[in-house]
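The data are quoted verbatim for completeness:
=====
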Amino acid sequence: MDINSELVRKTRVERGWTQQQLAEIADLSLRTVQRVENQSAASNETVSSLCAVLELDREQLLEESTRPEVQRALRRLEVIVPMAVGLGVALGSGVTVAVMLWMSG
């Protein structure tokens, strides 16, 4: 699942911990901590461990990712979804009218 990696990194640094120290305290591998901070990816178990150790609410950690590629994808969806809905409504209306005309004629 995607997590707010910037919050993990910021909280870790505020405590003066290295990635290795966070890994040991949270009973995670160093590679897992690196993946969390670099790729914003974590399993459910990892999220639970990080929340407990960093004293963060799960909702905070699962907040919308701040990665640029995620932001770009969300902006594209903001354009595509309304267009798709509009197209669906238009097509649905057209089919309905065509069926009604066919049935009445």
